[in-house]
Specification:
mainly beta, disordered N terminus, 12 strands, single chain
């Protein structure tokens, strides 16, 4: 489940010096960022697949995601991830949940909440590679070689003005694809959705990291 953090989604020559970014790509990403700030809550189904460098399928999962501000909730099968913006709980769906504080200084992970902010100007160089069809295609390169991925391509749906599909190439040249469907951008989601409630899971061991 932790690999789902790559999304989202989701992000060669790269180093610590930023190149000039494509103004057209910036305009599109700024538009996505502006729209996200107006949304009350988002719910969607997601699909997540991983292929190795030879193109062979290594794994595929489907689930649901809820997003509200900096908080998110992900369910895949019996496993669940809760994040209230400051803490994250990983519940195995059976007998154990691990809880940890979010390290805002950890730039190695691309988490859902980063996709809800102006993450791209700080962490990436980017350019518009295609505007054909129903989505804009934007290629993004991380500016920090310590990240665990080396290229991200995001597809901005022109009608919804949202990133609904992404492709990530990790440092092992695996291809990770993440897609959202059945997107509701006007969902009412209680804050309690984003925190693990131990009282509703008697007998589950809580492990603090």
């Amino acid at each position: 489940m932790k690999k789902i953090y790559l999304l989202l989604i989701a992000l060669i020559g790269f180093g610590l010096v930023k190149a000039q970014n494509d103004p057209e790509a910036k305009k599109i990403l700024d538009g996505v960022n502006s729209k996200l700030k107006t949304l009350k809550g988002v719910t969607a189904n997601f699909s997540y697949t991983t292929k190795d460098r030879k193109g062979e399928l290594k794994g595929s999962v489907k689930g649901q995601i809820n997003i509200k501000g900096n908080a998110y909730y992900i369910k895949q099968g019996s496993t669940e991830i809760y994040c209230n913006g400051s803490k994250v709980w990983n519940f195995n769906g059976e007998d154990e949940v691990t809880v940890a504080n979010i390290d805002n200084d950890d730039e190695k992970m691309l988490t859902p909440q980063k996709l809800l902010s102006n993450f791209y100007d700080k962490d990436f160089t980017y350019k518009l590679t295609s505007s054909a069809g129903s989505a804009y295609e934007i290629q993004m390169m991380p500016t920090d070689a310590r990240k665990n991925f080396k290229q991200v391509t995001v597809y901005v749906d022109k009608a919804k003005n949202l990133i609904l599909h992404s492709k990530v190439i990790d440092k092992s040249d695996n291809l990770i694809e993440f897609s959202l469907t059945n997107v509701n951008t006007n969902a009412t989601i209680p804050d309690s959705k984003f925190a693990f409630d131990a009282s509703k899971h008697p007998g589950v061991e809580v492990v603090t990291q």
